[in-house]
Write a sequence for this structure.
């Protein structure tokens, strides 16, 4: 039997699905406001890992991925046990920073629950100094961004 070559990963940032867990909520079953930026990060990191430039790769290359800014706009509450669709896109890509814009929707009906952005950058793991984006990371984000504008 011959091995079939695996297809290259889809270069887009793809939706990630997560369920609202009881631990994410307050006493009334509504997801706590502080959980939303974490979900933006989950969507980004899952995609970076899938595209071959996850945290482990960045660490081996001597970089730490840092969040320099986070914003959230709340539209409607997520509740336990909603299934959420986290939809990231590259909103801005520069030489040293990228802004990832994410929409969180309830998967069952598509209702937009929140939107937000993370601005990410790299630092040197040893010195903590800011660095330009690692070329492989920049290329992945550029390819994802290019797909949005087609």
């Amino acid at each position: 039997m011959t091995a079939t070559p695996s297809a290259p990963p889809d270069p887009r940032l793809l939706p990630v699905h997560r369920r609202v867990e009881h631990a994410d909520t307050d006493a009334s079953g509504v997801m706590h406001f502080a959980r939303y930026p974490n979900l933006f990060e989950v969507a980004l990191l899952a995609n970076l890992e899938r595209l071959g430039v996850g945290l482990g790769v960045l660490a081996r290359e001597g970089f730490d991925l840092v969040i320099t800014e986070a914003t959230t706009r709340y539209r409607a509450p997520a509740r336990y046990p909603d299934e959420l669709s986290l939809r990231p896109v590259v909103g801005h890509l520069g030489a040293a920073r990228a802004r990832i814009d994410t929409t969180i929707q309830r998967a069952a009906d598509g209702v937009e629950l929140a939107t937000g952005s993370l601005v990410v950058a790299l630092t040197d793991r040893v010195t903590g100094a800011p660095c330009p984006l690692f070329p492989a990371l920049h290329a992945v984000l550029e390819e994802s961004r290019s797909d949005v504008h087609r």
Summary: The first strand starts at residue 16 and ends at 19. The chain has one domain: 16-148.
